[in-house]
Fold these 2 entries.
Entry 1:
Amino acid sequence: IAACMAQLQRERRARQEAEDLLPRKSVDLRETEKRLALATRGRLEALTRIGQELGEVQDLDLLSNRIVTEARRLTQAEAGAVFLHEVRRLRCTAVQNERIDPVGRELLSRLGPHDVLEVDLQSLAGAAALTGKTLNVPDAYRLPESAGFRFDRRYDEATGYVTRAVLNVALRGRDAQVIGVLRLMGPAAA
């Protein structure tokens, strides 16, 4: 009986400690929720502002660069590109990469914009454009055979950059038709 009483006392103390801790944790949780709400509201406001600004831009190359810049900023991606959909092909209109040296950046600026890809299921960007789906690839160099598409390594080979994680998002126009693909790249997912 003494052992049972001692166990009961320990359980009561543990329960009282938990009850005493609950109000403090509730306050911490409410403060965390407020911080997250503010951060989310700030991001939504930034996206709205960006959308308004982008709606005013008439130069497609300038618009593409702004989309890549803002998407990279919001996602913390180290590189990105925009491919605009033309008849059966995608034309690269903007490409950015903060991880390559100035010589590589110059080479990338000459290689990237106006490069053309076929819209087919063989390439990541082509598959995103054709299906309208977002394709999230943790490691572009280790695509499974079942993926059906491949990653074009030309830019990596030319600049020395090693692409790992790749996110391809189909960009849609007012009529919901795919008008291009936004590609964001970064290090391998942990």
Note: The beta strands are 79-86, 89-97, 116-118, 135-137, 165-172, 178-186.
Entry 2:
Amino acid sequence: MHIQPLFAIEARDELHRLMRAYPLATLFTVAGGAVDANLLPLEVIDRGTHGMLAGHVARSHSLWNSEAREGCDVTVVFQSPNAFISPRWYVNGQRSGRLAPSWNYIAVQATGRLRFIEDAVWLRTHLEALTRSQEAGREESWSLADASPEFVDDALKRLVGFEIDILALSGKRFLSQQRTEADRRSLVEHLGREESLPARALAALIQP
């Protein structure tokens, strides 16, 4: 991922926080000369230099059945809400015409090595942790214990877990930091008026 210094996120804690905030990641693998991309919810674990990711797929999933499933190198991308930025929203520079459309977003990229785990106890613990993180803060949170034991046992037989040891971790916060405070306040105001839910969510991420 191309990252200019102004937009770089380097602190591991901040990168992990963002990954947990946007857990539905795109996992890229290469097998037989073809790139395969899958959207998967991932658990972030504070272990090792850069951390570890844990996930699961059905045994019928292409990731489990691919040629490069075990020990292959993978790239994982986490992304925040994002939105188009209109040049008309900038307060400064309107007279010069030296303005162009842009796109604002936050992204985290992790690269590492995939390792599958066929262990029902590990898988149950992972599913409980992943569910708990998403149900946190709700008045009536759901947990694995709310499902029938037979249903859970059957699901565990149809799933396989995996871990990714993160070997490199980088992040990019592209939120018009290069613009003036007045421009950024204007962006927040205009994004807040958009019908798009991602655009309104993005407005909350931009701090003038």
Note: The longest helix spans residues 120-135.
